[in-house]
């Protein structure tokens, strides 16, 4: 009897360990560990009008994030080695929008500060950054809540809750009609400390088209 039980549990453990890891999503040939190039002329013409400086044309994808917005829409985020991410919004298989985001800054938030940040520093009618004023792009007086599943190069998968608001400012240019600003208060459970790691992430970005991107 004991030997039979040992065989059963050994089989169960073997089955669990051999279960396939979840596969990171892909689109436009972009994948975890892959790379892509953004049209260098597009960057050269757009950058003087934007907050970002020194944007690279060539990018290596170091992580892939997925956000399910509703049953049909989702965001895929390809985090790069250039302190940014390429975000693609999908409706089913159709690409609705592509935005190249760059992190402006990231600040740790203590537990006592968390509620204050959520209530006062994310959703506003206007947001000032480097002498530029951005207008609220999404409607509402409270942050939009997203949950992102992120696939990492080491095979691990993490989840982050994000409390966000997007802003925009118009730019009088055919090359880059507007600049976007994303304010995101984020928390992720840390199993080591048995507590949440919290950050306020500010990013600026601008829209791209499929023809501006080439996977390598």
Automatic annotation (TrEMBL):
InterPro entries: DUF2491 (IPR019621). This is YjfK family protein. It comes from Vibrio ostreae. The lineage of its organism: Bacteria, Pseudomonadati, Pseudomonadota, Gammaproteobacteria, Vibrionales.
């Amino acid at each position: 009897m004991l030997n039979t039980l040992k065989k059963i549990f050994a089989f169960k453990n073997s089955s669990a360990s051999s279960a396939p890891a979840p596969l990171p999503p892909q689109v436009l040939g972009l994948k975890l560990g892959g790379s892509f190039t953004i049209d260098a002329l597009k960057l050269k013409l757009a950058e003087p009008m934007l907050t970002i400086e020194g944007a690279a044309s060539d990018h290596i994808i170091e992580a892939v994030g997925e956000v399910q917005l509703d049953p049909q829409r989702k965001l895929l985020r390809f985090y790069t080695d250039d302190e940014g991410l390429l975000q693609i919004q999908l409706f089913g298989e159709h690409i609705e929008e592509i935005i190249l985001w760059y992190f402006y800054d990231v600040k740790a938030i203590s537990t006592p500060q968390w509620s204050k940040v959520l209530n006062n520093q994310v959703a506003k009618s206007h947001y000032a950054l480097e002498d530029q004023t951005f207008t609220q792009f999404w409607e509402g007086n409270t942050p939009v809540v997203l949950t992102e599943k992120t696939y990492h190069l080491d095979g691990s998968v993490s989840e982050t809750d994000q409390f966000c608001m997007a802003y925009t400012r118009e730019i009088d240019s055919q090359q880059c009609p507007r600049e976007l600003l994303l304010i995101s208060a984020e928390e992720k459970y840390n199993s080591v400390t048995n507590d949440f790691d919290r950050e306020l992430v500010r990013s600026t970005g601008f829209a791209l088209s499929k023809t501006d991107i080439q996977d390598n």
